[in-house]
Design a protein that fits this description.
By secondary structure, the protein is an alpha/beta fold. It is 44% helix and 17% strand. The protein has helices at 36-51, 94-103, 119-126, 142-145, 152-161, 163-172, 178-183, 196-208, 212-224, 228-244, 247-257, and strands at residues 4-8, 12-17, 20-25, 57-62, 67-69, 108-112, 115-117, 129-133, 137-139, 176-177, 189-191. A 7-stranded mixed beta sheet has the order 1-2-3-4-6-8-11, with helices on both faces. The chain has a 4-stranded mixed beta sheet with strand order 5-7-9-10. A hairpin with a 2-residue loop joins β2 (12-17) and β3. α2 (94-103) packs parallel to α3. The longest helix is centred in the C-terminal third of the chain and has 17 residues, at 228-244. The structure holds Salicylyl CoA (2NE). Salicylyl CoA (2NE) is lined by residues 30-31, 33, 67, 70-75, 92, 94, 115, 117-119, 141-142, 145, 147-149. Salicylyl CoA is lined by residues 30-31, 33, 67, 70-75, 92, 94, 115, 117-119, 141-142, 145, 147-149. Hydrogencarbonate binds at residues 140-142. Its cofactor is hydrogencarbonate. Pfam families: ECH_1 (PF00378). InterPro entries: ClpP/crotonase-like_dom_sf (IPR029045), DHNA-CoA_synthase_MenB (IPR010198), Enoyl-CoA_hyd/isom_CS (IPR018376), Enoyl-CoA_hydra/iso (IPR001753), Enoyl-CoA_hydra_C (IPR014748).
């Protein structure tokens, strides 16, 4: 595709082509580890892609072929419970990013070459689909480096690949190759590295031909139980949006604007 940059950041790139936004962590010298600034920029880019009417699908990836993402940048992890930004404020907000990916009404596809490790592994996990190159490697390192993601990193992993395997990944901190990941249902497909982007774009194009509203609703439906009331809220918000477009919903608004009693009698109660 003829990718065009649509925004400029220090830690990530943001490109667009043919209905697809491609967001890439651009810190290959650190295996695309994220620091607070990286996460802030990813949040901004996700917001941009969500609100860009030309974007139908979002691809999340890492620059280069060595890594998708190696998690939190350990060199800026302070002693005070956070990762330090350039001003010295401890925060990371990667959990906000995880939820943003889940709440995004557009499909988000992880395109993985090389390592998806630690918090980087959780990032691909929270994406809707994962397309892996044959050089991809997966794993959690938290218990080795004094960290853990006991939220989506644990629970969603268990829901994705099963409890025993999820516990194995966290409790042993081993690495798994692309074939193992495919076999355990951690990724959707594995392709030769040279074909990774072409294959990812093909999957995106398939989704771009489908109903955006149907994709939006089914994504919210898949996330609803895991996200609890907040997930139901997302699904319910989408339902409200659809109701607003119906004659019955518009009758309520119009009656209020016209200062008359609404006439809902003409709308059938469906069995
Ligand atoms: C990713 C991995 C397995 C790659 O190994 P390899 O051998 O290909 O590369 P190497 O030499 O380890 O790394 C290349 C450069 O990238 C830096 C390294 O320090 C090295 O820099 P130089 O020595 O050349 O200067 N680098 C790699 N990962 C980094 C990182 N996460 N932070 C800062 N610099 C990093 C191997 O590098 C590896 O195992 N990396 C560490 C993975 C890790 O433990 N990540 C943190 C997990 S905790 C987390 O992400 C997290 C969470 O659990 C909960 C909430 C939020 C975050």
């Amino acid at each position: 595709l003829a990718w065009q940059p649509r925004a400029s950041y220090s830690d990530i790139t943001y490109d667009f082509a043919d209905g697809i936004a491609r967001i890439a962590i651009n810190r290959p010298h650190k295996r695309n580890a994220f620091r607070p600034e990286t996460v802030s920029q990813l949040i901004d880019a996700m917001h941009r892609a969500q609100f860009d009417r030309e974007v139908g699908v979002i691809v999340l990836t890492g620059a280069g072929h060595e890594a998708f993402c190696s998690g939190g940048d350990q060199t800026v992890r302070g002693d005070d419970g956070g990762y330090h930004d350039e001003d010295g404020t401890p925060h990371l907000n990667v959990l906000d990013l995880q939820m943003q990916i889940r709440r995004c009404p557009k499909p988000v596809v992880a395109m993985i070459a090389g390592y998806a490790i630690g918090g980087g592994h959780v990032l691909h996990l929270v994406c809707d689909l994962s397309i892996a190159a044959d050089n991809a490697r997966f794993g959690q390192t938290g218990p080795r480096v004094g960290s853990f993601d006991a939220g989506l990193g644990a629970g969603l992993l268990a829901r994705t690949i099963g409890m025993k395997k999820a516990k194995e990944i966290w409790l042993l901190c081993r690495q798994y190759d692309a074939k193992q990941a495919l076999d355990m249902g951690l990724v959707n497909t594995v392709v030769p590295l040279a074909e990774l982007e072409e294959e990812t774009v093909r999957w995106c194009q398939d989704m771009l031909r489908l109903s955006p509203m149907a994709l939006r609703m089914i994504k919210a439906g898949f996330n609803a139980d895991t996200d609890g009331l907040a997930g139901i809220q997302e699904l319910a918000g989408n339902a409200t949006g659809l109701f607003y477009m119906s004659e019955e919903g518009l009758e309520g608004r119009n009656a209020w604007l016209e200062k008359r009693a609404p006439d809902f009698a003409k709308y059938r109660r469906r069995p």
